[in-house]
Amino acid sequence: MVKIIDGKELAQTTTDNLKFEIENLKKKGVIPALVVIVVGEDQASQIYVKNKHRVAESIGIKSIITKLPSSTSESDLLALISEYNENPDVHGILVQLPLPKQINEKKITESIRPEKDVDGFHPVNIGRLVMNDPLAIPCTPMGIMRMFTAYDIDVEGKNAVVVGRSNIVGKPMAALLLNANATVTVTHSHTQNLSEITKQADILVVAIGQANFIKKADVKQGAVVIDVGMNRLDSGKLAGDVDKDVSDVAGYLTPVPKGVGPMTIAMLMEQTIELTKRSVGIG
Ligand code: NDP
């Protein structure tokens, strides 16, 4: 029988546990503050930002949302980020992606100070992660590693296959698994015989953005299957990258929704607290 990994519940426990730390920081006169900048009207972005704000406020993190029009220039956005970089009362800065075409995402990502880069996307943070000396870690793969720990899933020595190689999910996921002593294979749209590779996986992480792409014939009996995908169907429903029939063969499976998504937000909160503590020399 497949075990469903309850990301929602684990996220709730994780954020509940943070309240105590936030209280302690406040007693010392430190109010953890997270700035989220959103440019334009992308609908999915608006929902993500609202969810992050709701969770932050519910546990006592000061959440500052800065909404800018889609016509915002790159230089104006850089100037705003520079202000937040210099502001000692701001501990985490996140720019919601995607950005409008006139703004270079790479430039923006690189403009956030690594010590405030709560998304962990800055090249310095990616480099430190690869060298197994992390400062800030991309929240989605970080949340997945936390799921393994919470469900006593030992990754050491296991065959781990990551489907997808984006800078925000696939690549940092592979680095974290490698740091945890898994044997890691990263696959992508040019991979040949993908199914032959995924069938070897003890741990299979799928992040490609194609609804129900991985079927039960692609999965080894008893494998741990992590579905990162969030695909909006024409019906309006949300679907993962993994087909429901995978539950017939998997040992563990994350649902969509209520799987990886809530853990991503919980890790964002945890990382805000970690960066806050670091900035004031605690922990
Ligand atoms: P990207 O579009 O940036 O990357 C997709 C990756 O999948 C690419 O590396 C691409 O390969 C690969 N790919 C695409 N099609 C195939 C295929 N047929 N076979 C093998 N590989 C394929 O996506 P993201 O990593 O940003 O996101 C992936 C999914 O995860 C999306 O559904 C997104 O919404 C979701 N997501 C969910 C989050 C959460 O919190 N739950 C957070 C972030 C993302 P190539 O490099 O060759 O093009």
Automatic annotation (TrEMBL):
User: Is Ribosomal protein among the key words of this record?
Assistant: no
**HAMAP family from the xrefs?**
THF_DHG_CYH
Record-listed E.C. numbers: 1.5.1.5, 3.5.4.9
Please state every residue range assigned to the domain named Tetrahydrofolate dehydrogenase/cyclohydrolase NAD(P)-binding. 138-278
**Which source organism does the UniProt entry give?**
Dellaglioa algida DSM 15638
Q: Which residues bind NADP(+)?
A: G164, R165, S166
GO function terms (MF aspect): methenyltetrahydrofolate cyclohydrolase activity; methylenetetrahydrofolate dehydrogenase (NADP+) activity
Q: What is this protein called?
A: Bifunctional protein FolD
Tell me the first and last residues of the signal peptide: none
The family this protein is said to belong to: Belongs to the tetrahydrofolate dehydrogenase/cyclohydrolase family.
According to the UniProt record, one GO cellular component term is:
cytosol
Which reaction is catalysed here? Answer: (6R)-5,10-methenyltetrahydrofolate + H2O = (6R)-10-formyltetrahydrofolate + H(+); (6R)-5,10-methylene-5,6,7,8-tetrahydrofolate + NADP(+) = (6R)-5,10-methenyltetrahydrofolate + NADPH
Subunit details = Homodimer.
Q: Explain the purpose of this protein.
A: Catalyzes the oxidation of 5,10-methylenetetrahydrofolate to 5,10-methenyltetrahydrofolate and then the hydrolysis of 5,10-methenyltetrahydrofolate to 10-formyltetrahydrofolate.
Pathway of action: One-carbon metabolism; tetrahydrofolate interconversion
Which residue intervals define the domain Tetrahydrofolate dehydrogenase/cyclohydrolase catalytic in the entry?
5-119
Q: Name one GO biological process term.
A: tetrahydrofolate interconversion
Gene3D superfamilies per the record?
Leucine Dehydrogenase, chain A, domain 1, NAD(P)-binding Rossmann-like Domain
Alphabetical keyword list: Amino-acid biosynthesis, Histidine biosynthesis, Hydrolase, Methionine biosynthesis, Multifunctional enzyme, NADP, One-carbon metabolism, Oxidoreductase, Purine biosynthesis
